[in-house]
Amino acid sequence: MDRLGRPLHDLRISVIDACNFRCPYCMPAEVYGESYRFLPAGEMLSFEEITRVAGLFAAQGVRKVKLTGGEPLLRPWLPELVERLRAVPGIDDLALITNGAYLPRMAAPLRAAGLARLTVSLDSLDEETFQRMNGRAHRLAPVLDGIRAAEQAGFSGIKLNAVVIRGMNDGQVLDLVRRFRGTGHVVRFIEYMDVGTKNGWTPDRVVPSRETLDLIAREFPVQPVQPAYRGEVASRYRFTDGGGEIGFISSVSQPFCRDCTRIRLSADGRLYTCLFAVDGFDLRRLLRGGATDEEIRERIRVVWSRRADRYSEERAHRRQQPAAAGGKVEMYTIGG
Question: Which helix (H) or strand (E) holds 132?
Fold first, then answer.
């Protein structure tokens, strides 16, 4: 347990910090230009190191692992890592989040390697909006092809994440609902968050989940679904006509810090106990410095037991104003 009584249950592993998109809420193109230097291969954790860390976390109670980035499908030989993690005793749930651009060729190998669940970021079905929101004018078609490839590979119940930003894609919420209702996939609408310090976040661009829910419910009546487990980040709703589910991740308007059971590992081996953290613990130094498994397990225990993060709740008390600039970790280094 941490200092607020929250158990350690979920590990999110960033396998690479690079990304082919430049989404404004994560890696705005005006900041991360063509010459931006990402981590060289030698500074990223190897598959052997990642697998070792996952095993040590499993020994501390972690049961869910999600692979993130950057864009994780840019990491060479990723299915090999999936195979390794599937063999770790205690890991019951292995998932991955991707922007979907490389899914057409990667979905089948990932499924064959044992990947259980898939989340695809999809902020709009409008071509112009989609290109503007990915920051590099990438076309929508490869992502939709990737979702179809994932279905054909055997993935079901794919989660489709849309970050809703006022004045950008908030008028296209219903397009996503209409497209994926009845498919078995779950569209999840995410409030625009002040992660890091580069995305120009302001409260007036946040569309509260309640507003999005009311918009959807006027056309498709829904009813709430009880959380499946402590720490489930999305509030879930079921269409009353049996058309499936939608979800809402409401870090700004309805903070869920009190039930957060996640810890994050960056591609260069730093542990972060909050998406809005200022700094992390350098686990790579221990891994490459000859530390024993017991020494690393103890450090994990200490890091978690000292955790008292509740940034989103504190932001709410400040009436949604972000904390003073202090170098918060950027989202692309630790995933969403």
Answer: helix 127-134
